[in-house]
Amino acid sequence: MTHDTIVALAVLGVAGQVIAAVLLLVGLGWLAGLRKIGWSVVESLEGYELWLAFLVSAVATGGSLFFSEIAHFVPCELCWFQRICMYPLSITTLLAAVANDRRATRYLLPLPLVGAGVSVYHLLVENGVVKETQACLISAPGGCGVKWIDEFGYVTIPTLALTGFALCFAFLLLATLPPATVRRT
Q1: Which of 100, 134, 156, 161 has its CA 20 to 30 A from that of 15?
Q2: Which are the contacts of 31, defined by CB distance < 8 A and separation ≥ 6?
Q3: Residues 35-58: pLDDT tens digits?
């Protein structure tokens, strides 16, 4: 069962990466002047941005708890910092979505940004590009460089975290846009 759950989380991660890539391409197209596609994406997601950010952060939070509490992977120092950024998102995005409070997004945007930065650093440590600190070596068996999972040749825990942070950032950023009724006036 544990391996099946890990594979399911990895598949969700790959699907999230595809969605993030599409959103990135739409954003780049927007910057290049292709606004029609951008507006159609914005309008199709309008009203669901906070719920989507909640869904992503809740799955990420549940996944990290699965890894530590069920699969018994010991979280390293960097994993804890990523959790510090992700866990509050699952609660605050739910509260913002329930209240339909789009203003809260401006205060939430730093969390996925910082979390993504930690995830990138964790990936660099995990792949031997950056040397582990002493804190990493004593925080978990094997330190921060241990690949507890390695699905599809690249999906590791920090890869999943980075995907979650990228999607949360994208959905929160979309939620900062004014509603269509305001944009059209």
Answers
A1: 100
A2: none
A3: 899 899 999 999 999 999 999 999
